[in-house]
Amino acid sequence: MGRHLLQVLLPAVISALLLWEGVQCNKNRYSLEITSPVIVQAGLRVNLPCKFTYDTSRDNPRAILYGYWYVDDKQIRKPRLVATSNLERIKEISPHVRDRFELSERKLNQGDCSLTIRDVKAADEGIYHFRMEKGRKRYSYSAAKERVSVIVTVEFLKGGCC
Fold first, then answer.
1. Residue 89: count of CB within 10 angstroms of its CB
2. Cα separation, 146 vs 132, whole angstroms
3. pTM
């Protein structure tokens, strides 16, 4: 009787331990690939190629995946939204930034979080980070290795005038 109980319980205990270990591993399923720093000349266009993954276990297939790009604002010490795929939050983006910054929203579901900045200005220089939201899942890729530094150079044309 005792041996039979052990034969029945042992596989169940091992399965439970393996399942528990798998749940622990889900915390590491968030990653971001981006090159930093990016140096760009003022007035040009720059594309910041970016790939991300997130934990898709227990994913809600009806929830919409949203992406957000923030820049660290040194003056108010709070990240400032510069691009998003969430139409309800576009109004939070400053008008002088809204038309120049673009998140690759069509490819967001494929893990593409690339950011394009048109007509780069000296004021665009800063440290940027990406955030994803899907239903109840929300994750900011804001560790040092997951941020991108954008360095803007301003070059003046040499030569005579008039």
1. 13
2. 13
3. 0.76
